[in-house]
TrEMBL record:
<dbReference type="InterPro" id="IPR005821">
    <property type="entry name" value="Ion_trans_dom"/>
</dbReference>
<feature type="domain" description="Ion transport">
    <location>
        <begin position="21"/>
        <end position="212"/>
    </location>
</feature>
<feature type="transmembrane region" description="Helical">
    <location>
        <begin position="20"/>
        <end position="39"/>
    </location>
</feature>
<protein>
    <submittedName>
        <fullName>Ion transport 2 domain-containing protein</fullName>
    </submittedName>
</protein>
<dbReference type="GO" id="GO:0001508">
    <property type="term" value="P:action potential"/>
</dbReference>
<keyword id="KW-0813">Transport</keyword>
<keyword id="KW-0851">Voltage-gated channel</keyword>
<keyword id="KW-0472">Membrane</keyword>
<feature type="transmembrane region" description="Helical">
    <location>
        <begin position="51"/>
        <end position="70"/>
    </location>
</feature>
<feature type="transmembrane region" description="Helical">
    <location>
        <begin position="166"/>
        <end position="187"/>
    </location>
</feature>
<dbReference type="GO" id="GO:0005249">
    <property type="term" value="F:voltage-gated potassium channel activity"/>
</dbReference>
<keyword id="KW-0633">Potassium transport</keyword>
<dbReference type="Pfam" id="PF00520">
    <property type="entry name" value="Ion_trans"/>
</dbReference>
<dbReference type="InterPro" id="IPR028325">
    <property type="entry name" value="VG_K_chnl"/>
</dbReference>
<keyword id="KW-0630">Potassium</keyword>
<keyword id="KW-0407">Ion channel</keyword>
<dbReference type="GO" id="GO:0008076">
    <property type="term" value="C:voltage-gated potassium channel complex"/>
</dbReference>
């Protein structure tokens, strides 16, 4: 039985029901598999294995394309959906599939943005169900955000430098360069030689200088705030820390059981 547009939209965004979890976790797993395939393809692997990986990746791309079409069809406000952040990320993830027959080298760069599709799950509680403290949740989000950005930069710099620079032989070389550049350590043992590569390096440095202190500052502010809280586990959602004078959970509104000291 075919689902209505409203039910389809619900299941594509829902992360509470079993059906919604299965759909969204499956898509998240496909993103990780696809990203892993691209990393593996930067290494010298046997031709038959490379061919198999290409077939798997093509199948995943088809699934992503079908998902994008279904999300567009089920969206109540289609124009708003097209220009939403996650829809743009989704489109960039499948664009190489639609333009695969066109000989445009920069199209290959877009495939690294697939890892950013996982950002849609950062703010979802079910992925971090075992983390009950706010500062722990923020710390996990910071690590994931930094990893996603470093992964994308690594893919971009690899695609740009690998054809012209012998220092970038595998994805690990690009990943190493991205980490030392974004953290402004800059060992200098690996450096880009192309103009685009140097431009990416400047963007990496600016991102590292701006993003890392901002994220760490957010965590510090949260830690200072939590220092004035007490441990009172909410029976509704499991949130462990609340303000000293709180009578209800700030996340779900459940009445708190005040622990006697």
């Amino acid at each position: 039985m075919l689902l209505s547009r409203e039910k389809t939209e619900f299941y594509l965004t829902d992360l509470e029901t079993p059906t919604g979890k299965i759909i969204n976790l499956t898509m998240a797993a496909l993103v990780l598999i696809s990203s892993g395939i691209f990393v593996a393809q930067t290494y010298n692997i046997p031709y038959n294995i490379r061919l198999l990986l290409d077939l798997i990746d093509t199948a995943i791309l088809v699934i992503f394309a079908v998902e994008y079409i279904i999300r567009f069809w089920s969206a109540e406000n289609k124009l708003k959906y097209i220009f939403s952040f996650y829809a743009i990320i989704d489109l960039m993830a499948i664009l190489p599939f639609f333009l695969g027959a066109v000989d445009i080298s920069f199209i290959r760069l877009l495939r690294w943005f697939r890892i950013l599709r996982l950002i849609r799950f950062i703010d979802q509680k079910f992925l971090f169900a075992s983390i009950s403290t706010e500062d722990g949740l923020i710390f996990v989000r910071i690590l994931f955000t930094l990893f996603a950005i470093i992964f994308v930069y690594s893919g971009l710099i690899y695609q740009v430098e690998h054809p012209v620079n012998p220092l970038y032989t595998t994805f690990l070389d690009a990943f190493y360069f991205s980490v030392v550049t974004m953290t402004t350590v800059g060992f200098g043992d690996i450096a880009p030689i192309s103009e685009v590569g140097r431009l990416l390096t400047v963007l990496m440095i600016l991102t590292g200088v701006g993003l890392i202190p901002w994220q760490v500052g957010d965590l510090i502010k949260r830690l200072v705030k939590n220092a004035n809280q007490v441990e009172t586990v909410c029976s509704g959602c499991g949130l462990a820390f609340h303000d000293v004078d709180a009578a209800f959970c700030k996340r779900c509104g459940t009445k708190l059981r005040i622990m006697s000291k």
